[in-house]
Amino acid sequence: xxxxxxxxxxxxxxxxxxxxxxxxxxxxxxxxxxxxxxxxxxxxxxxxxxxxxxxxxxxxxxxxxxxxxxxxxxxxxxxxxxxxxxxxxxxxxxxxxxxxxxxxxxxxxxxxxxxxxxxxxxxxxxxxxxxxxxxxxxxxxxxxxxxxxxxxxxxxxxxxxxxxxxxxxxxxxxxxxxxxxxxxxxxxxxxxxxxxxxxxxxxxxxxxxxxxxxxxxxxxxxxxxxxxxxxxxxxxxxxxxxxxxxxxxxxxxxxxxxxxxxxxxxxxxxxxxxxxxxxxxxxxxxxxxxxxxxxxxxxxxxxxxxxxxxxxxxxxxxxxxxxxxxxxxxxxxxxxxxxxxxxxxxxxxxxxxxxxxxxxxxxxxxxxxxxxxxxxxxxxxxxxxxxxxxxxxxxxxxxxxxxxxxxxxxxxxxxxxxxx
Amino acid sequence: xxxxxxxxxxxxxxxxxxxxxxxxxxxxxxxxxxxxxxxxxxxxxxxxxxxxxxxxxxxxxxxxxxxxxxxxxxxxxxxxxxxxxxxxxxxxxxxxxxxxxxxxxxxxxxxxxxxxxxxxxxxxxxxxxxxxxxxxxxxxxxxxxxxxxxxxxxxxxxxxxxxxxxxxxxxxxxxxxxxxxxxxxxxxxxxxxxxxxxxxxxxxxxxxxxxxxxxxxxxxxxxxxxxxxxxxxxxxxxxxxxxxxxxxxxxxxxxxxxxxxxxxxxxxxxxxxxxxxxxxxxxxxxxxxxxxxxxxxxxxxxxxxxxxxxxxxxxxxxxxxxxxxxxxxxxxxxxxxxxxxxxxxxxxxxxxxxxxxxxxxxxxxxxxxxxxxxxxxxxxxxxxxxxxxxxxxxxxxxxxxxxxxxxxxxxxxxxxxxxx
Lengths: 420, 420
Fold this sequence. Notes:
CATH architecture of the largest domain in chain A: Alpha-Beta Complex
CATH topology of the largest domain in chain A: Fumarylacetoacetate hydrolase, domain 2
Number of domains of chain A: 2
Strand content of chain A: 25-35%
Oligomer: homodimer
Low-confidence stretches of chain A: none
Structural class of chain A: alpha+beta
Number of helices of chain A: 10
CATH class of the largest domain in chain A: Alpha Beta
Radius of gyration of chain A: 21 Å
Distance between the termini of chain A: 60 Å
Largest interface: A-B, 72 and 72 residues
Largest sheet of chain A: 8 strands, mixed
């Protein structure tokens, strides 16, 4: 696929994450006005809510863009998503007749504030990164052997939707119970092993019916788009709490997503082959159109007083063993109702190389081998004041499709009300 | 506490679950009209939405009762909940002047259809039944020893809000992956070990702020009321999937709650002492006012062709080791934002006696000792056509406070679309 040229020159820059080929969904505001739907194009945001209000852009009878979330568009279904995309390509393509009219609805990205692009209905986090699973096995259990079910089931757990936040939101270091190795009793206080997890999140656009399973083909059609996702984790809280019912408060204090939802349509040219299957999958997980994508990912960390960020990991979304469509199928197959706005985290994505690991737990091997940053500082886990940033892009022929930075800074822990 | 007498004679019956002392919140409709808020009193439903519309009952400036959920009332906070209760006690008490006027808003319970009483924001299921945890340890790991964290942490996991349904909703037997003991590979198909779990659910009425922990005293004030809750479970799906991230699809096909939310105020007289602590709790979990309640619970099962239901278990809500307020505190203490409509399951409640176990897994000891029902049939797990019903009441002096039946029938599994 080649660059689709736009009259908006900044969209033709081979380095921009927002060429005409992308057209990602976001929610923005300017100078404190009402947050509303917008589309990124080059270094601008197209105020599609205003275009809808002016009668220039309509994808259905109702107004669906004047709200601070894309859920209403999601609910309209894939035909409407396509209609919107076709309209936007028409408005923004090189030589478009309406250029002058549309130019009035462009706002520089430097001027806008980005908000959560969707109302998260429910949040589920999967565990589809094989290298990550092997690393965690080695670190926690002394063996890289995968759990017996790992190659068969898209393993997942329900996360907490209420703490999903948009890039740029500060996160307080969480309090919780931890137990030092060898201690009889746990203690209560701020986590000492705060970590990030590099993931891609899939957004469910249309729902399923309670009690009714779905196929992988249906699941693929239900997916609206993708975000970058940092599943912040408190490793010491998690280690003490997770037996026997899985991760809970070690994950519930914050999950950061990118401001832009990249449409599934924009990633179509980047579909790639499924991984080699070590054992056959059960038929309900077979895919005719495979839901794997070639998207380069990287992680940067910037301490509070550092002049610049250090890149600490580079990997690819194609390192997952189960696609988002397979995860969604598995999620719904028991009869669980899926809804527009459900967010499915891929699981931490680690590549095989040491500098391709998707968490500090892996990069510093549980603190045994602290990382040295470009600035000379070392890190075993995330410290107060650190900013973590995930970036991702699919590389086309002379263009790239990206998500915008998925960034969050850690603030010190808050004390309990009424506590010393 | 004694019976508070009402001019509605059926509310003075010592057997009714809905005396004036209760006044539970429900959502009802009549002959297919719009579902709206109602209050149970004796064998009637008081149409408080109509009273609000008529200007007879106002708890705030806005209309908050003409909707099919109690969330708007929840959001008003404890003072508004109290105001509503005081108004209702005035309208319904013996000798009330407005009796004739209010009587027009009474509808026989036999005529109404009950709906979900709330929009479930998120659903969390805990694990606070000590006997249940010991039984599951004995059955699954050969030892009743509790996990090392059990006495310290209100262990919980995030469940799926989208599959929480109101009593009376049929549930399809779920499909999923299971692996027969000794088999190399899993199979896909309907669960063969369908179970119920007897729980009490706490409804969070007011929220907390992302990033800010709460105290147990705050948590207690945030609780709006309680429901009965059946956390349907597919034991074979659960057994194969739950390592290492906990229960997922084995729980996600359905959770049934009672149609009525019993106000926390109605259960105040039934608060009881906390359990004996085998180890001291961390200070953040200490309670000044203990959130444990004496509520008798029972479970009935009725096969499709059986003339009547058999009672298979009797226990008490006071058998939990952590209160709902302690669970809520733990949930929020990491900074996790809690919201109106969050539902917290207590965990399966089993008493020490064999006939006080809160699941068939325990009652039939994983199928090793099938139960014999009153009708002579036996049960190891739930079969197609079976109806499971939970009941619960707090016994006062000449009155009881109940929830209405929490009932669900199991239908056969549905085939996958496109499958043979």
